[in-house]
Specification:
single chain; alpha/beta; Rossmann fold; 2 domains; 11 helices; 11 strands
């Protein structure tokens, strides 16, 4: 089983469009499991249109809940809470106190220090995760509740579901759409991956953000294969992007031009290969290269040794 994670280091580089196009190309020859790790702002489901087969609650951490029956209005909880999550409403007919779950950090100080034990300690509902069927294969995705934390843990749950689905269905390839940046969700996305497919925008910001992503992938000893997007807007920027990929020990798979067909495909809820035969041929070539690199494993891994820091 091999997992290819599509990342970009920044938002707006075309990562989701590329992931969908690769899925359409790979599905012609491979049995796939697809996954969307962008749990804060998922969008892959818009193009894949999954038929939902499973829905689960994501519960992580705890939150305080005020119990008015035990309260003696001693005001101590207002002093205890360092996050201003507890307030005293002016409504005389309502509860004496209110806990704002968006501000509550789950430190439990109010639960432990309230002399009347007027706060209950309840599991926090942070979102939902789903499994579904699409035209390209089984799809695993999630939606984190706005303001909730533990996106890294939710991604770990998605990874487990994707691997279980792949084993159950006999799928060799898991194709995952990662998150922008290099933070906790991306680090969780890289766990257990076989290959990073980087979508590099041929701009200065795109190159800088790719360099940070490459450093992270290098830390985890993961090979990088890169697709240069919007490459025809600036030849010098495209060449600089390719040089940055090679300097990071990565493999340049090819270039993609700036084309309004990307927007057209998104507006119709289609993958690029489903809309244009020219793009279908391009992504069939890219998908073959990706599959070869993923299956080759450590023999094709190219990385620069991590530099030792000195004081």
């Amino acid at each position: 089983m091999h997992e290819i994670v599509v990342l970009s280091g920044k938002g707006g580089a075309g990562k989701t469009s590329v992931t969908t196009a690769l899925a359409a190309a790979m599905a012609k020859t491979e049995k796939l499991v697809l996954c969307d790790y962008d749990v804060d702002a998922p969008d892959l489901h818009i193009l894949l249109k999954p038929e939902e087969t499973e829905r689960h609650d994501f519960v992580s951490g705890f939150t305080a809940r005020f119990n008015a029956d035990r309260c003696i209005d001693c005001l101590q909880c207002l002093t205890f809470c360092r996050f201003d999550a507890i307030s005293k409403p002016n409504d005389p007919e309502g509860d004496l106190y209110k806990v704002d779950e968006l501000h509550c950090e789950g430190c439990s100080v109010c639960v432990k220090l309230c002399p009347q034990e007027a706060f209950d300690w309840l599991p926090r509902h942070c979102g939902e995760y789903f499994a579904g069927k699409t035209r390209f294969g089984t799809f695993i995705h999630a939606q984190l509740t706005p303001g909730s934390e533990n996106s890294g843990r939710l991604i770990t749950v998605l990874k487990r579901l994707a691997k279980d689905a792949a084993r159950r269905e006999g799928a060799e390839i898991i194709l995952s759409d990662g998150t922008p940046g290099i933070g906790c969700p991306v680090i969780s996305s890289l766990s257990g991956a076989s290959l990073v497919c980087a979508v590099v925008e041929a701009t200065q910001s795109g190159i800088v953000d790719f360099a940070r992503l490459a450093e992270l992938a290098n830390h985890f000893r993961l090979s990088i294969a890169a697709i240069i997007n919007k490459a025809d807007l600036s030849e010098s920027a495209a060449l600089a992007a390719e040089e940055a990929v090679r300097a990071a020990g990565g493999t340049v798979l090819g270039r993609l031009p700036y084309d309004p067909v990307f927007t057209k495909a998104m507006s119709q809820g289609l993958a690029l290969p489903e809309l244009d035969p020219v793009w279908a041929e391009r992504f069939e070539t890219l998908s073959r290269q990706l599959l070869e690199l993923a299956r080759a494993g450590s023999r094709n891994r190219k990385f620069i040794p991590i530099k030792e820091t000195t004081k």
